[in-house]
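Worked example

This section walks through a single chain of length 153. The input is the sequence exactly as stored; nothing has been trimmed or padded.
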Amino acid sequence: MYVKYHITIGLIATLIILLAFPPIGWFYALIIFLASFLIDFDHYLWYAVKKGDWNPFNAYRWMIKKTSFFRAMDLKERMKYKTFIMIFHGIECWILLALLIFVHKIFLFVLIGVFIHMVLDFIDLYAWQTPFYTKISQVYTYIKNKKKKKVIK
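Given that input, the structure is written out below as tokens.
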């Protein structure tokens, strides 16, 4: 899903949460909102590390181009390619966030924002008939990638 949708729906969801639970306050609502789309920072990190290019505009253009490339394919063809490992999009990261709740409650609100983001990602995966494992476990995705083609430059 594109960032503009994550930002828009993240804002709406955050406002609904704030209206339903006013005691959380504006600060924690802001944390929820920011987490609902900043989780995609791992897309930028993936690009920067793999390509050695730290320009965020190049990363954005490259990701849009790859998304269009893959969405033009049928599911059978798409499944021949490796899936990007997005470190913030798997249960491994979610467990860490859940444990960090015991350190500071801010991580609860980060986790809520991540949950909003992931619901949208799962809707997107369903719409494009992409297996959910690509966003559930990055370790499992890594294992499944071993026999697949590399992503085209």
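What to look for: Residues 3-39+74-145 form one domain.
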